[in-house]
Amino acid sequence: MGERQLASNTQKALTTHVHPTAGIEPESKWYGSDRNSILSAKIHPAKPFGIPTIMPEETEPQTADSQPQRQFALRSVYVKDISFESPNAPDIFRGEWKPETSLQLDIKVNPLAEDTQEIVLTVTISTKVGDKTAYLIEVQQAGMISASGFNDQERGPLLYVYCPSILFPYARQAVSDLVAKGGFPHLVLQHINFDQIFAQKLAEQRAGQAPSTEKPH
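Above: the chain sequence. Below: its structure as tokens.
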């Protein structure tokens, strides 16, 4: 199983657990089979949302053997669902603040129309002090995109690396606001390396499909 099946199987989510205070590498870049198609792109304003649209650089006229022109547009960014719980307030404020925080990420791709998808990045945070839960947060940060001209090998990194990297700063800001409004010390999530997460999931899937070398008894 490769990038093609991971990108096309929209019913399965890409889920991982990371620690927000760990030394995670800076925000990832998209490594498709043709990096220049994104990295050398021009930015044009998209109407009516005012969100940038990525269009390819002007090239020579296409021939019958040339690949289709790649086009990507982020149509809108929005919060799909959000929740905050502090089940042990106000007693949690009376003790010493030594929190332990865990972070879970979930990525889903929902098809809306031809070449149009909804990307939903779910960020779930659980913070405890000892055996008591200080707060639980879940933010579903979503975006609607249009993408055409990308082959099956490129769509996996596009949908599960590039798009979540765009959405994550919005989710991070929402988390920080919720924590502050809940009366807790400021929390800023570190950058997430979605490249590494995507590569790990592909490796796990390939390992699960590897033929067994064990001989029957």
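DSSP finds four helices and seven strands in the chain.
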